[in-house]
Amino acid sequence: MTALHALRVVIMTLSRIEYIHSRDFIHRDIKPDNFLMGLGKKGNLVYIIDFGLAKKYRCSRTHAHIPYRENKNLTGTARYASVNTHLGIEQSRRDDIESLGYVLMYFNRGTLPWQGLKAATKRQKYDKISEKKMSTPVEELCAGYPGRFSEAFAAYLKYCKCLGFEEQPDYSHLRQLFRNLFHRQGFTYDYVFDWNLLKTAKRMQPSQVQQIAQQRMTIEQ
């Protein structure tokens, strides 16, 4: 996924996760397989699916937060789980947000430093993933992005790791990180992905297709 598309996706997915949290639930299994693009006229929208591991994190009436607990089993997908989840700490909103950060790193890199680790048991593999995840600097994770992109995604991950257990993430602040980057790079937030253009291209003249392709290559550089 290109940097431009990653920016579009993170802004939309942050809004989806914020909505889930506003309904008093956390997803607890944020991963690429649980994001889908819409069909037809909604082909530019991101959807979150699979709420089988979702959990209510606060009372709908009083907004009383679930208590902090330790020694919890890992719930979700180890590859994208937050560090605190690996440490056996009860999940809260901060963990969904951190998991999204790892998903974005995966979209950019195509792989993560803790993929492919071998171990005799699942528990040992989880421990290896946890150790690698905690020892990999945020800057190294973001190294695949050019300049300001790397800075924005590093700021995102560092923010996630500083959140308290009951603290509400500042979703607007996080979205603004990437919106500011959009403006600085001169991007146009047209909600158009390359796969949307493939359908449109079939109805266009070759010269028009070439012109659009050149424009998009220019803003990606």
UniProtKB/TrEMBL annotation:
<dbReference type="InterPro" id="IPR050235">
    <property type="entry name" value="CK1_Ser-Thr_kinase"/>
</dbReference>
<feature type="domain" description="Protein kinase">
    <location>
        <begin position="1"/>
        <end position="182"/>
    </location>
</feature>
<dbReference type="GO" id="GO:0004674">
    <property type="term" value="F:protein serine/threonine kinase activity"/>
</dbReference>
<dbReference type="InterPro" id="IPR011009">
    <property type="entry name" value="Kinase-like_dom_sf"/>
</dbReference>
<dbReference type="InterPro" id="IPR008271">
    <property type="entry name" value="Ser/Thr_kinase_AS"/>
</dbReference>
<dbReference type="InterPro" id="IPR000719">
    <property type="entry name" value="Prot_kinase_dom"/>
</dbReference>
<protein>
    <recommendedName>
        <fullName>non-specific serine/threonine protein kinase</fullName>
        <ecNumber>2.7.11.1</ecNumber>
    </recommendedName>
</protein>
<dbReference type="Pfam" id="PF00069">
    <property type="entry name" value="Pkinase"/>
</dbReference>
<dbReference type="GO" id="GO:0005524">
    <property type="term" value="F:ATP binding"/>
</dbReference>
